[in-house]
């Protein structure tokens, strides 16, 4: 007997929330989203439950729902999601090395007065595992982040671009998670008034060169 006879092969499948809305209708999608919970991060939980549909419909940001599934498709589980939007960032010259500076200059605009680069880049705006029913154990954060980066790579393969970025609360576990995945710290941003689900006064900003 082979190990695969006992433990089935599994993989991840992902769906664009806009496609889900078209195919399943808003009520069914809302029901699926209501099964998402993320007790460690209310912003991540509330975004999916209360904002993601509107943001997808209006084109502000696109959410991708990730399922774990067995190869024979007999079992599946909603394990997490990520949301991507298109934004621009400003990165100070002294936050990057010379190779990164060269790439930033090629892809963005350098301001000699302020000594920084402004560049258009996808923002991984939300990312979280689904802690309902222990579904979080079916995916690692690294897997989920790689799916988001793979999506960015695919888009940039079509339209160009080398950078992506994200913002996170100043929490040791999150910092380790992003740094382990090769994201580089480049600055801090004050929270906006409406960002009430986020703890602290600012967010840490990280970029990656893909
Ligand atoms: C961030 C995330 C995707 C990483 O996945 P992972 O590497 O598989 O990590 P785990 O879920 O096993 O968590 C790793 C550790 O970080 C901690 N952690 C995760 N998110 C945290 C958060 N938002 N605040 C504080 N601690 C957090 C976990 O408690 C865990 O601690 P432990 O090692 O003491 O058990 C996942 O933890 C997650 O979905 N977190 C909640 C949503 C979130 O904060 N997203 C990031 C938005 S910037």
Walk me through what this model shows.
This protein has a single domain, classed as 3-Layer(aba) Sandwich (Aminopeptidase). Helix 2 packs across helix 3. It has a five-stranded antiparallel sheet with strand order 1-2-3-5-4. A three-stranded antiparallel sheet has the order 6-8-7, with helices on one face. It is about 35% helix and about 35% strand. It is α+β, with helices and mostly antiparallel strands and about 210 residues long. The mean pLDDT is about 95. The site of coenzyme A has 16 residues, from strand 5, helix 6 and helix 7.
- Assign the CATH class: Alpha Beta
Number of helical segments? 7
Tell me the CATH superfamily.
Gcn5-related N-acetyltransferase (GNAT)
Strands in their spatial order, largest beta sheet: 1-2-3-5-4
The total count of strands amounts to 8
Largest sheet: 5 strands, antiparallel
Count of spatially separate domains:
1
What is the overall pLDDT average?
96
- Return the CATH architecture: 3-Layer(aba) Sandwich
Order of helices and strands: HEHHHEEHEEHEHEE
Distance from N terminus to C terminus (CA atoms, Å) equals 42 Å
Beta-strand fraction estimate: 25-35%
CATH third-level topology: Aminopeptidase
Described by its quaternary structure, the protein is: single chain
Helix coverage percent of residues? 25-40%
Radius of gyration: 18 Å
Bound molecules: coenzyme A
């Amino acid at each position: 007997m082979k190990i695969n006879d006992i433990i089935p092969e599994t993989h991840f499948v992902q769906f664009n929330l806009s496609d889900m809305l078209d195919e399943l209708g808003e009520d069914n999608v809302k029901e699926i989203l209501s099964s998402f919970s993320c007790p460690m991060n209310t912003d991540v939980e509330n975004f999916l439950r209360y904002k993601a549909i509107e943001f997808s419909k209006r084109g502000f940001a696109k959410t991708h729902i990730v399922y774990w599934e067995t190869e024979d498709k007999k079992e599946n589980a909603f394990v997490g999601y990520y949301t991507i939007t298109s934004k621009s960032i400003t990165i100070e010259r002294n936050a990057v090395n010379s190779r990164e500076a060269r790439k930033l200059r090629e892809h963005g605009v350098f301001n000699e007065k302020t000594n920084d680069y402004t560049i258009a880049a996808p923002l991984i705006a939300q990312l979280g595992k689904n802690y309902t029913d222990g579904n979080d154990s079916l995916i690692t954060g690294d897997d989920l982040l790689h799916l988001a980066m793979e999506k960015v790579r695919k888009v940039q393969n079509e339209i160009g671009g080398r950078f992506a970025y994200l913002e996170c609360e100043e929490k040791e576990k999150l910092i380790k998670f992003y740094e382990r995945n090769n994201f580089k710290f480049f600055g801090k941003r004050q929270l906006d008034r409406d960002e009430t689900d986020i703890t602290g006064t600012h967010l840490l900003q990280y970029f990656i060169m893909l």
